[in-house]
Structure formats: structure tokens, C-alpha cells
Amino acid sequence: MPTINCSVESCVYNKEKICEAEILQIGGKGANWTESTCCETYRDSDDVHNNVTEAGETEEILCKVETCAYNVNKHCSLSEIEVSSHGDVSDYTETDCLSFERKVL
């Protein structure tokens, strides 16, 4: 099972800085740098009624970032990644995959 270290405190899946979303989706199709990526799985804990989620261990990391060196058939090949943000988050586009590394062409 992959491990997602997460410092996005407002996400409902963040449990003591570990993401507990069963499937994580990283976006940023044509990203050139970390800030062009995002965690599309992000859900604001204030927007989720009663904080009920389908959480548990992360089973897989899906990746839409075609330019990432770790994207293998739309899945992340890393067993551990880090998701973060630059301050308060109100939308998934304000998150970043810090594990992004641009593929050498």
C-alpha cells in the first residue's frame, strides 16, 4: 500500500498528516513544476456533512500528470508521495504533489 504524507490540514482524508483516501488522484496534465500539480481527491472537511468519508488505507495513486517521471500507465510508481499546499485551501487546485519530478524528454 502506498503512503501519502499530507500537510493539507483542511482535507477530510488527512488523519494525523497521512492521507486515508482509498484512491488518490493527482492532476496537472501538462505540469512543468510542482505548483502545476494538484490532489484532485481533496475534499474540504467543512463541506463534508458529519465528516463521513470512505477512508482507510490508500490502495493506489492514480496520476493524470503526463509529464511526471513517476507516471506509469496513469499510476504513480512511487510507494510514498507528499501532498501539500501554500497556506489555506478552499479548492483542490490549491494543493500540490511535492513528489512531482519532470520527465526527461
From TrEMBL:
Tell me the superkingdom of the source: Bacteria
User: Which Pfam families does the entry link to?
Assistant: DUF1540
Matching InterPro entries, A to Z?
DUF1540
Where does the DUF1540 domain lie?
4-42, 61-100
Q: What is this protein called?
A: DUF1540 domain-containing protein
